Amino acid sequence: MKLSQIGEFGFIERFSKRFANISSNNAMGIGDDCAILPLDENYEQVVTTDLLIEDIHFLRSAISPGDLGYKALAVNLSDIAAMGAQPTASFLSIAIPSDTDVEYLDEIMQGYHELSTKYNVPLLGGDTTKSPDKLVINVCVMGKIQKGKSRRRSMAQPGDVICVTGPLGDSAAGLKMILNNIRPDNESKELIRWHNRPEPGINEGLWLAKQDGTKAMMDLSDGVASDLRHIMKQSKVGATIDIEKIPISEALKATAAKQNWEPEVLALTGGEDYRLMLTLDKDKSTEIIDRYNQQFPHPLTTIGEITESENHEIRWIKNNQSFKLTKEGFNHFGHQ
Amino acid sequence: MKLSQIGEFGFIERFSKRFANISSNNAMGIGDDCAILPLDENYEQVVTTDLLIEDIHFLRSAISPGDLGYKALAVNLSDIAAMGAQPTASFLSIAIPSDTDVEYLDEIMQGYHELSTKYNVPLLGGDTTKSPDKLVINVCVMGKIQKGKSRRRSMAQPGDVICVTGPLGDSAAGLKMILNNIRPDNESKELIRWHNRPEPGINEGLWLAKQDGTKAMMDLSDGVASDLRHIMKQSKVGATIDIEKIPISEALKATAAKQNWEPEVLALTGGEDYRLMLTLDKDKSTEIIDRYNQQFPHPLTTIGEITESENHEIRWIKNNQSFKLTKEGFNHFGHQ
Fold first, then answer.
1. Contact A87, B25 (CB under 8 A)
2. In chain B, pLDDT over 90 holds for what percent of residues?
3. CA-CA distance, B137 to B156, in Å (whole number)?
4. What share of chain B is helix, strand, coil (3-state, %, to 5)?
5. What are the contacts of B259-265 at 24+ separation with CB within 8 A?
6. pLDDT at B325
7. Based on C-alpha coordinates, what's the Rg of chain A?
8. Residue A325, pLDDT above cutoff 90
9. How far is B101 from B98, CA to CA, in rounded Å?
């Protein structure tokens, strides 16, 4: 049997069962944005790691080394943000083909350093080694959060409203432009910029985890359509999403119009948004959203609600009608 | 400028300076087997990470998947052992070519699980992703140790005796057999076994860190000739090594005789021993060594002593004469 037949999640399921015999001393492992480990009397530690491989996660021809270094750390910080935690340290493993220019590596480290400085995250170690051909980068980040305050995927409840912290689909559109060799204009440049240099929602996550009304939280790395299912599965709930409420940036609207793309499909099925998706206690949501919007540049936007259904299927609504979401997009949405 | 011109250590030096601006909150970063982070009132956390790339660190044709999984964790646990710490959690990132058999992956995880179970180290997370061609494995391990008790490379002092926890050179000889396609006999099989499935000195490290007389400690991954220089540099000391005292296994002696290899050269310059090298307060050393040898299968062996010299050159002694160590080995040792 080949890996392609069971997929990555199938493989993870196979081995994670095997490890259930080892006591984890109150730690929480596989299945959320971060693992949670006991730290001291008042705090817990969160840990995440992400592996980026050349030609799978990035093309050297399509991303500057500075952006690559920035992004390698950003995708990990985004997982820390999703727990509501403060990042405390990073570890960088990098495998380098021997004909790589040192100046190229310097720029990777400059981008990595820029983001490290922004959130005051020291680089405390790692591993540097040769690679036969592809550039390989693994980053591991630790963070801390007050005991019991981390927001997990299992914390959503029926009636919660579902929110996102920024416009969706920009990164997916940026990637589409890169892969299709579309020359960016002033507006669409922004899409590629967000794809190559996403900003982790550290401050947003920290603020949200301080609010009592914030329930489940995660970062959007595979797109709402895929990521929301993790919350549904772990919280044993259903969800309804109002397609019209999905926040779409002006840059995506303009570019999608020109290219004849459906922006909502990119926003819901494209990945690498690195915005936070969270659920809020309905009664507290208006007040939380108001206060949030006074502090952060992108409004916290309600896109749907958590329901009692347990079939793990998202109900997609537009103009009060239900739709099916397929890879082909809106045209093929069938009325139910 | 190409990376090959400055090497990995040159690259690390370039970027580690850059990160000095970020406060590390009493943590100790790059430069030892593990980083050390504050944990709670009584304990500190140690963290290490190692990246293994197919065709650089292993050949799929020369190591079974079970051994590969075992070794990927073992080399990290060896770094935890070198601090004298107890491992507490591991994180595994793996990038997999899509035509890989699931059964092959299952065996990797079985080997990884076997060692995890032996030292009770839960697997708390990681990342699973595609790879274009090579299998890539990054492991990150955390451990804990009583505050101030970790043994660092900077703790050696003139007069200390230098010890190792087991025979050296087996792994290097095993690798030589693999690369030269030498058919193993009963004895030399052991060399390949140690190369493919090294045993981290967790219990040895824990015991040694509890002894007052234990000073600097590190694990042998690049060979005594290279690794000892880290202790010398960080402790600002010199060292004399008595070549005749280097512990050589019977398997290596027998195989070296057959193959016409010089076992001492393999023992001193070959890598991946994953034995611990440490320095002991001379006055306490006899007593510590006696007690150690009552508990552990391989004797703790004195191979030299720390001196006051600061020129970072190891003094190699044999039959009371000084030698130079070159890549060509003993034949070319010149009298000084």
1. no
2. 78
3. 33
4. 40, 25, 35
5. B259/B176, B259/B182, B261/B173, B261/B176, B262/B329, B262/B330, B262/B331, B263/B169, B263/B173, B264/B169, B264/B330, B265/B329, B265/B330
6. 78
7. 20
8. no
9. 8
| pLDDT higher than threshold 60 for residue B121 | yes
Q: Which tokens is B69 given?
A: 């999984």
Q: How far apart are CA A251 and CA B109, in angstroms?
A: 45
pLDDT band with cut points at 50, 70 and 90 for residue A328: low
- pLDDT given at position B12: 86
Residues of A in contact with B133 (CB under 8 A): 133-134
ipTM of this predicted complex?
0.91
**Structural tokens at position B271:** 């890598």
Selecting from B47, B53, B127 the residue whose C-beta is nearest the C-beta of A95 gives: B53
Distance in angstroms (rounded) separating the CA atoms of residues A169 and A249: 8
**Which residues in chain A are closer than 8 Å to B26, comparing Cβ atoms?**
none
User: Is B131 touching A (CB cutoff 8 A)?
Assistant: yes
pLDDT digits over B130-150, tens only? 999 999 999 999 999 999 999
pLDDT band per the 50, 70, 90 thresholds, residue A327: low
Which residue do the tokens 């494995």 mark? Answer: B137
Torsion of CA A268, A270, A273, A279, to 10 degrees: 30
Q: What is the mean pLDDT of residues B18-27?
A: 78
B100 touches chain A (CB under 8 A): yes
Closest chain B residue to A136, measured at CA: B136
Contact B161, B227 (CB under 8 A): no
Read off the pLDDT band of B23 (50, 70, 90): confident
Q: CB neighbours (10 Å) of residue A257?
A: 10
pLDDT grade for A336, boundaries at 50, 70 and 90: very low
Instruction: Collapse the DSSP code of A176 into the 3-class scheme (helix H, G, I; strand E, B; otherwise coil) and give the result.
Output: helix
- Return the exposure string of A176-195: e unless at least 16 CB atoms fall within 10 Å of the residue's CB, then b: bbbeeebebeeebebbbbbb
pLDDT at residue B328 in the model = 60
Largest CA distance in chain A: 59
CA B185 – CA B169 distance, rounded (Å): 17
CA dist., res. B316 & res. B321, Å (int): 8
Measure CB to CB from residue B89 to each of A1, A27, A136 and give the nearest one: A27
pLDDT of residue A211: 96
Per-residue DSSP letter, A169? S
Torsional sign, CA A49, A50, A53, A56: positive
Whether the pLDDT of residue B336 is over 70: the answer is no
